[in-house]
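Notes taken during the Thursday session

The instructor put the following on the board and asked us to keep it in front of us for the whole hour. The protein is NADPH-dependent FMN reductase-like domain-containing protein. We were told not to look anything up and to reason only from what is written here. First, the residues (195 in total):
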Amino acid sequence: MPYARCFTFRQPFAQIPFRRSAGSCQPLVTSRGVEVTTLRIRDFNAEDLLFARFDSPQVLEFIEAVRHADGLLIGTPVYKASFSGALKTLLDLLPERALHGKVVLPLATGGSIAHMLAVDYALKPVLSALKSQEVLHGIFAIDTQISYDDNEEGGTLDEILTERLHEGLEHFHHGLQRRLQARHKQAGGHLQLAL
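Then, after some discussion, the predicted structure tokens were revealed:
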């Protein structure tokens, strides 16, 4: 059976709340048979990003991975009503139609509910400029909805956030299935996928 490929962007530095919410997604997605590749901004040479070195091996590898992905989980911390500048720098390296035909689920964390609209009014227009046609309703988490224990990548999410995350990932999975069916139909076959 064909499988879907998913690419996740995760932000670095001291954004522990974001890492925990984004990290909670991967097991939920892989349990549905989706191959997941995770990228962190810190995986890149900063000069390649800042000077837009399109010929950098890391940048070329990134562009190729996005090209082969069926869907993307794009996560970011929100600060001062905007998504991360590091994420914008990375998205700027993608070709114009890089997200065409891909399912995108935005994930964001912030200090208060006041930043919730940053996904709709700041991030979604950038994703649309990259020709994403299926940007799902984003999931915004307030920092207090995510626990702070000793495990940097782990921790727990509160019940309401967990429920919203499961619901959002269910929609994401349905979008991936539609993408697989469309791709298979273009190849001249029929594909049945179980939910």
